[in-house]
């Protein structure tokens, strides 16, 4: 048996992220899922890019504030204490709008842990000359 308590504030934020991201999987000893805590100020994004995952299902639980999630069809507003779920192959970009009243704090869970399965999604692909 094994048990662990992890203090997210004791985990150093990941470098080179558009918002504060504390990766909790490794300190928690998790191997089959990814879990991160994000804190985004107004105008900051959670992911590095508008993206989708090939195999990973993601869930964003909003601890405080309001999370905006852009998808190809619409932008969702996810209030505090609500869960937003993204299936594999579904593009999304989670962010805190520039005009927000304050930061948003989100617990992001992904399973299976799929390091490297994220793919950049371009909502407006460039038109090639032969397409016109």
TrEMBL record:
SUPFAM superfamilies: RmlC-like cupins. It comes from the Archaea. InterPro entries: Cupin_2, RmlC-like_jellyroll, RmlC_Cupin_sf. Residues 38-109 form the Cupin type-2 domain. Residues 14-25, 116-132 have a biased composition (Basic and acidic residues). Gene3D superfamilies: Jelly Rolls (2.60.120.10). Residues 1-26, 111-132 are annotated as: Disordered. This is Cupin domain-containing protein. It comes from Natronosalvus rutilus.
């Amino acid at each position: 048996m094994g048990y662990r308590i992890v203090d997210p504030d004791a985990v150093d934020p990941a470098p080179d992220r558009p918002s504060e991201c504390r990766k909790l999987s490794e300190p928690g000893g998790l191997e089959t899922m990814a879990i991160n805590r994000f804190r985004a100020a107004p105008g900051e994004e959670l992911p590095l890019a508008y993206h989708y995952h090939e195999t990973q299902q993601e869930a964003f639980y909003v601890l405080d504030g309001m999370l905006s999630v852009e998808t190809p069809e619409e932008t969702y507003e996810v209030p505090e204490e609500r869960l937003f779920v993204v299936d594999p192959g579904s593009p999304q970009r989670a962010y805190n709008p520039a005009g927000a009243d304050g930061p948003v704090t989100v617990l992001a869970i992904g399973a299976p842990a799929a390091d490297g399965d994220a793919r950049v999604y371009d909502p407006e692909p460039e038109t090639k000359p032969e397409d016109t």
